[in-house]
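Example 5.3 — Glutamate ABC transporter substrate-binding protein
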Amino acid sequence: MQLRKVTAASAAVLALALSATACGSGDKNDSGSSGGGKIKVGIKFDQPGLGLQEPDGSFSGFDVDVATYVAGQLGYKPNQIEFVQTKSADRENALARGDVKFIAATYSITDERKAKVDFAGPYLLAHQDLLVKKDSTIAKGADLNGKKLCSVTGSTSAQNIQQTIAPKANLKEVSTYSECIAGLQSGSVDAVTTDDSILAGFAAQDKYKGQFKLAGLKLSNENYGIGVKKGDTATADKINTALEKMVSDGSWQKAVDKNFGPANYKNEPAPKIGVIVK
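Solution (predicted structure tokens):
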């Protein structure tokens, strides 16, 4: 009888230990420290210079570098970061569902978006601009009248040109900016418009180096922020602290130079946290 009592007690202890181990073995997508877990981060997969999945499966770009630095400050090593493709139309839903902990994906801070998510940053001030061939004489928005302009279907950049800047521009709308850049290279269009950071990323690709230039027109202000789930102010505060450190230790400027430098991108100074330029 005594042997059975000891065996039963040992079994109970073993079961309790196994239960505790099982409870602690899951991935941590919302921890401030890695603890052996992972963090899921939303980025773009198709924007050279910002967020691009390379043929070997790795990721490159300014947003990727910012996200990696921020995750590091939250306690995660690069091999503990799982990048998740978050397309523009699904960014708010991805945060609300908890698919990702934060998003760094050319995510402009707007009042409409702030009603659905919280933002850290901004970490980059971009502007709507034009990309043209290196020998182009297009120097201001009005020069687009009568010219062939390319942008993606339904973009606010195209609408801005049509409605206020050059209503007589011949707008060609396609599904991706890659198509626009190819058209600029072939001469089927005279200019491409979107955020200057996006344009610089494309122009910096090896196959396009030296062929294009940014017009530098600053047609709008785009304050890129890092999105977090609505109400998650603790994470937003930690990210803000990380962004401030990234600027102060020089890592921010190194990331700008590495990803945009080949296109002669004249970036704005690092924005101050919480300061939105209208």
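Remark. The chain has a mean pLDDT of 88.
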